[in-house]
From TrEMBL:
Record-given protein name: Cytidine deaminase
Entry's family note: Belongs to the cytidine and deoxycytidylate deaminase family.
One Pfam family hit: dCMP_cyt_deam_1
Keywords: Hydrolase, Metal-binding, Zinc
KW Nucleus (keyword) present: no
Protein's GO biological process: nucleobase-containing small molecule metabolic process; pyrimidine-containing compound metabolic process
Domain CMP/dCMP-type deaminase: 21-158
CDD domains, per the entry: cytidine_deaminase
UniProt superkingdom: Bacteria
Amino acid sequence: MNHQQYKLDYEVYADASALKQEDATLLNHAREVTSQAYAPYSAFKVGAVAKLANGALVIGTNQENASFPVGICAERVLLSAAATLHPGVAIESIAISYDNTKGKSNHPISPCGICRQSLHEYELRVKNPIRLILAGLEGNVYVIPQAGSLLPLSFTSEDMK
Ligand code: THU
């Protein structure tokens, strides 16, 4: 028997002002677009902004539904839009923020399990890692160099060969 360990490397910043300018701008944009979320059921508004390799910016916000499972997270709204508007173009970074309108928005949230799977497939599809910049409306910031690192032992198309 062998023990295996999985290591996750990520950066922690005290707040947005400690980021390099380009990342701070992307994060502040993500904070702004939280207002475009449709989240009448959870009151938890998520905003995401991607910077693409061609310079384009693509946004996503969570879109809920009275039939709860129909709702879509901001990250997957963003990925669908990016794939449709800019097919084959790599996503360099995605900033993700949220406005918990009934509570605190002062710590980073990281993508849910389904979104991790979607983010990782996007990385494989365009052969480029996606950096994640994660923070609330205030407080510390995590920068994760590669979204797929959030999904150890991931299931991919390779497993179906
Ligand atoms: N949500 C996202 O959009 N992204 C995340 O990373 C976590 C959760 C949404 C789903 C739902 O509309 C609300 O936040 C509460 O779970």
